[in-house]
Amino acid sequence: MFWYQWLAIAALAICMISCIYLFFRIISLGNPPEYARRAGNIGKAVRYSFTGAMSPRQKESAYLHLPTYIAGIIYHIGTFLSIIIFFIYLFDLNIGGWACQLAVGILIASSLCGIGILIKRIMKHELRSLSNPDDYISNILVTAFQVITAVDMIYSVWPAYYIISALLLLYLPLGKLKHAVYFFAARYHLGFFYGWRGVWPPKHIRK
Amino acid sequence: MEKLTDEKIQKGLEVLRREVGSKLLTHVNSCVHCGLCAESCVYYNVEPNEHFVPAKKVDIVSSVYRRYYSTTGKFIPWLTGARKLDDATIEEMVDLLYGSCTMCGRCNKHCSVGVDIEYLVRTGRAMLAEMGYVPETLQKTVDAAINTGNNMGISTEDFVDTLKWLEEELQFEVEDDNAIIPLDEKGKDIMYTLNPREPKFFPLSISAMAKVFYAAGESWTLSTKMYDVTNYAYFSGNLEEGQLIAQRMVDEMKSLKANRCILAECGHGTRSFRWEAPNYLEQGFSFEVETSVELLAEYIREGRIKVDPEKNQEIVTLHDPCNLTRSGGILEEQRYILSKCVKNFVEMTPKGTDNLCCGGGGGQLSMSEYNERRMRISGLKADQIRKTEASVVATPCHNCVDQLIQTNAAYKLNVKIKTLAEIVADAIVLDNENEENIS
């Protein structure tokens, strides 16, 4: 193995240890104390929080912003795909033929979505005012990771690929990219809160 | 604004230390600054600028958290926009968290990640309360509740006089001298609470509920000592004051030995006593806590009162109070009541858990500093009401009633605003009435 592969493995280890620490820290702190008499089913509400409540039909943040929402979904698909490919490379496995072409196609699309989201953040005054350097760095690193994965699948640019992967993995626990862990906790807490009060799963208004 | 001292900063930060748990840790770290929550906020919809994007409210609380409690924030604050708790931050916090938020929770539901934005607003308000930055008018409302037992500062003598007058009116209306409004009676099934706006401004809603209790043959009482369902400390963020007010209600329930505490039609009263008070006091209650909306639906469903929708012929629409519906799960009961008590019921759009705040929540009604802003955002509700072509707006919340009355006048809607108890009372068929028209 080359030094840059060792670098990426070390970065992966640091990233995973940090994320596991964050995850277990949240778990160890437990549920927020609720002393009021429970009015609903927490399990069902948490399931709904991760499923029905995430439906684009339920969220204005999705159905009022369909282009951004779709771009965000594709961007995340690209991120997950890049991570899977990273592990495939790490275990010295091969992706060939149509799977490689499909992956490159998805990564080109997701990278374009990432660039689009970055341009939107730069151009739109409201988003710019909400943003800090971490927002830009996170976007640039994740998009670069996707681009370099796609390029590497065609041209094998290994040192650059592993260096960018390492940078992303080292940065992940520092900034907003750690929402990779906190997203799940946030959905859980929202489900717990609404479940306790009997708001979720939603009741249907009878006609 | 009072000068910020080190002692105050420590008090503010102590709130974050006290609150730190899985929930706070999660929500201060989850926002990705996508800004897609903007349209779910009534303030942003009326005035689309960055100040009113809910993520701004998240950011100001979490940026302070990051500055003092995260490694990145401590050593490289510029990277994540971590902010010191200084005068500029405090000033912005006061305007964002008190002046630009009704704590309606609509943004929570629509957040792309699931950040409990309203919870962070409450945490931020708790910090400001500890540091002594609660807007003066809101603090006066809390002080009135603490010093006089109710947030309107009504004396017991005036309260009892009003109830005696209402009792006479009730006896006249139902033609029965045995119809009473029981005061401080021990061992009754129900202790009923009131929003102090009722005895002060809307006494007819008390007589409406008294008529319902009379028709249902209910065993109930009012307390003259502690009847105030509201807890404005929930809005100010002061935990100790919130505890004090909640404890008084618990003590009065125990003193009167009632089985059920029925909360008057009040969204935040329900939220603060049913859901938050047990957490303030760190104890479950030994008695039942229910809303009058649930009780009214129960009476109709079980046939304890008879109602005739023909008695309410006007077109009625419904405003769902945020704290009762979106954060309290009361969605079907009010619709069931209206389906049985009015001839023509039309829904608003959006409705239910998606309904828009009237603009009076979050303590806005008591904070005259922000009156102009409050009345601007109520334009959204005015549009919603106008589109229904209804002539009556029903809402199970006295705060909302007050705000809707002001909206009605400001936007010339020419509608009547009623509580559910008033609508039910109008539809009641008493045993001594002709039963031919009973539905």
Q: What does this protein look like?
A:
The complex is a heterodimer of chains A (about 210) and B (about 450). Chain A is an all-alpha fold. Chain A contains nine helices and no strands. In chain A, helix 2 crosses helix 9 (about 180-195), helix 4 packs across helix 7 and helix 7 packs antiparallel against helix 8 (about 160-170). Chain A starts with a helix and ends in an 11-residue tail after the last helix. Chain B has 22 helices and eight strands. In chain B, the strands form two sheets. Chain B has a four-stranded parallel β-sheet. Chain B has a four-stranded parallel β-sheet with strand order 6-5-7-8, with helices on both faces. Helices cover about 55% and strands about 5% of the residues of chain B. In chain B, helix 4 (about 55-70) packs antiparallel against helix 7, helix 11 packs across helix 13 and helix 15 packs across helix 16 (about 265-280). Chain B has three domains: about 5-135, Orthogonal Bundle (Fumarate Reductase Iron-sulfur Protein, Chain B, domain 2), CATH 1.10.1060; about 145-300, no CATH class; about 305-425, 3-Layer(aba) Sandwich (Rossmann fold). The radius of gyration of chain B is 22 Å and the shape is globular. At the A-B interface, helix 1, helix 3, helix 4, helix 6 and helix 7 of A face helix 2, helix 4, helix 6, helix 8 and helix 16 of B.
